[in-house]
From TrEMBL:
GO terms for molecular function: ATP binding; protein serine/threonine kinase activity. This is Wall-associated receptor kinase-like 1. One of its GO terms (biological process) is cell surface receptor signaling pathway. Keywords: ATP-binding, Kinase, Nucleotide-binding, Receptor, Transferase.
Amino acid sequence: MDTEYFQSSKFTDKSDTYTFGVTLVEILTGKTPFSFAKDDGENLVASFISLTRENQLVQILDPQVVREAEMEHVGAIAELATRCLRLNGKKRPSMKEVSTELEGLRNTQRCLEKFQEPQSFKDETTFMHSTSETMKDHKEESIL
């Protein structure tokens, strides 16, 4: 729950941003705030922020995220999550800014995927090209 709510007893647009930050942390770690407890009493959000700042994020990430995601994008999302979780609501991004940033990351990923052909496709293209060249050679030889 938004830490500012405990002081003001009011939810704001920035409370939604905080909650979304918690959701991003849950997705990246595979843990819920209630399932995570450290001996020193540090909670999931505090541990996540601390490890992100110390460049030790991989220690808390869900193993599936580590295996399957681009770490550059994971780092960008983790940084966004930490900004959403700022104690001072005025320093948090708006949900519009969050949405724009996530959309930018998604577009970057699509661009990368567009320019990275799968190896099997490259092999097929090479095979088709070499087969086509061989057929031309045979055709020219038979004409001569």
